């Protein structure tokens, strides 16, 4: 099935709003560990089925040295031993905020965060969840397709290494 053409370009339709989205993105990146942020964005994008964001955040994570195995097992993070308890708490939170109509952002998930993150950090994690869910909805509704060449100015991709 061929990709549907771009329906709309929100950046052109609402440039001021789009600029504010990018500014918020920059603020979040200043307050959340970049490697964790890539994983959180990727996990929310998997849940939402956002092809653009899955491709983009996988690419970004690989460029910053995230091992392929951690990316491919992210969808099964609860069963994998590759993630720390801190990451697990953040994954549970991103999932609950992404699926908030189902989970309501449970007390259990919030309490698990408090073991590893300060109140301020939890606030930024929540903003990260809100932001990626907004980006997912923009990309899916507009039928945007990720083009790695658009981000050629970023760090070069790391070569995959063969397992020993």
UniProtKB/TrEMBL annotation:
Xref: InterPro entries: AhpD-like, AhpD_core, CMD-like
Lineage: superkingdom: Bacteria
Residues of the Carboxymuconolactone decarboxylase-like domain: 15-96
Matches recorded under SUPFAM superfamilies: AhpD-like
PANTHER family noted in UniProt: 4-CARBOXYMUCONOLACTONE DECARBOXYLASE FAMILY PROTEIN (AFU_ORTHOLOGUE AFUA_6G11590), CYTOPLASMIC PROTEIN
Protein name: Carboxymuconolactone decarboxylase family protein
